[in-house]
Structures are given as structure tokens and as C-alpha cells.
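Hi P.,

Sorry for the delay on this. The queue was packed all week, but I finally got your sequence through. Input first:
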Amino acid sequence: VQLQASGGGLVEPGGSLRLACATSGLTLAGFTLDDYAVGWFRQAPEREHEGVSCLSRSDDSTYYAASVRGRFTISSDNAKNTVYLQMNSLKPEDTGVYYCVAKRFKATLKTTRSERLCRNNTDYWGQGTQVTVSS
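Then the structure:
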């Protein structure tokens, strides 16, 4: 399984970036991208990594960290096996390395699959892409 993130860069505060995560290997054994919960984590200097946004088509749920709600939008394209993160109104505190993650959940619990993924319950991590928000 490979998760390859791209789209990071240097942007001024208030600007936008669109990250993309090209996945491969998740669709072996007859599964599709929609069978997985997918999402994005970020790692800022001297801070723990945090789940930024996650999506699960299997239980139709999305999760956003409070710090990005209303500014970031996660989406996926099953045909392209790609996950996106549209980031608007970027702030300096959004700076960090952004990683794509995925997990195929089997059990249905009270907590949504997207939230479970973003709460650090992951199977697959990809290489990150650096996002720097600075003037």
C-alpha cells in the first residue's frame, strides 16, 4: 500500500492550497477506496501529530478538527483512488507536514469511522507534504 501526498508549498496567510493523496494497493482483494476511511494528519514542529480531517463513505461521515472546521474540506475520488484536502483561509498555525492516512474498519461502533480514524486509529500512513504559511 502506498499513499503519496502532494500539493504542499509556501503560501501567505489567507491563501489556499489543495493537497492530493494518490493511493495504490488499497483496492487489492476487490475493495475500493470507498471501503476505507481516509484522511489527513499534520505534524507541526514540537507538537504532536493531530488528525485534521477524515472521511468515511461506508458510514457517510466526515470529521474536522475544531481548528480547521469551516476552512478545510476533504473529498475523495473513487475512480482516481485519490483523496483531497482543500485548505482555505490558511493561518501560520496550519504550518506542518501533512500526511495521508487510511484504514478499513470492519466493526460499526457508536463513534463514526471518520472520527475513529482521526483519533489516531490508522493502518496506513503515507509520505508527507510540507505546508508553510508565512508572509
